[in-house]
Amino acid sequence: MLNGKVAVVTGASRGIGRAVALKLAGEGATVIVNYNGSKERAEEVKKEIEAAGGKVEIRQCNVSDFTACEEMFKEIISTFGSVDILVNNAGITRDGLLMKMSEEDYDAVLNTNLKGTFNCIRFVARQMIKQRGGRIINMASVSGVLGNAGQANYSASKAGVIGLTKSVARELASRGVTVNAVAPGFVNTEMTEVLSDKVKEGAVAQIPLGKFGEPEDIANAVAFLASDDAKYITGQVLNVDGGMAM
Question: What is the mean pLDDT of residues 89-116?
Fold first, then answer.
């Protein structure tokens, strides 16, 4: 259980982030639901958590903005006194073949997925060091482990998240802070809903378990890494992908 813990989940208004926020709140944590442009959906997540008896607040912040992240975490720490769990989930895609990919699309994905993860860790690390404890869970991807055609920007950003995870895990381990990554495979979210049936069939053919995962499958892995059951695990990448990257 996560009673008394304060958890920040970025990009928590939909999909995997929403499932993670619901799961951590259900385990007893006070959850701060971060969103960028989806205020109404963040409000819906808040209502859902409150209806189940959980504790929740929402905070708007574009995680790719260094200064905005600093301000958000200062305010959260001032209000709640601590941040015990950080889940860096915020991410975007701008898929396309490398030969046709614009600089704008490449930069946008790296800025949100990789720099955004760095920004949030940067401004929570000092507090966790002061507390002599904390859990940081970064959302990687099977695309960052295996690569994926048409996702040079996304795969690069998620491979970067894995490298960042391992480096920060080494830096913070002596202070009792664990840093791990979860690497989802194909999961039933809005991000995969837009895929054609042909692409989905091709994806399923690559998955030994023969089906897409659900957001709750990822949330369960995050909750484990956030718990005391995972206190001796750091610097690891937990693939939750139906066996794709075995």
Answer: 97
Are 71 and 120 a contacting pair, CB within 8 Å? no
Number of CB atoms found within 10 A of residue 172's CB: 20
Rounded Cα–Cα distance for residues 132 and 137 (Å): 17
Within 13 A of 2's CA, how many CA atoms are on the CB side? 29
For the segment 20-31, what is each residue's pLDDT rounded down to a tens digit?
Answer: 999 999 999 999
Residue 35 is among the residues annotated as catalytic for this protein: no
* Sign of the four-CA dihedral 200, 206, 212, 216: negative
Banded model confidence at residue 218, pLDDT cuts 50, 70, 90: very high
- Which residue in the list 35, 106, 154, 232 is annotated as catalytic? 154
Torsions phi, psi of 178, nearest 5? -100, 145
Question: What is the residue whose two structure tokens read 């664990």?
Answer: 178
Strands (E), the chain: 6-9, 30-35, 55-60, 85-88, 134-139, 177-184, 237-240
Confidence of residue 198 (pLDDT cuts 50, 70, 90): confident
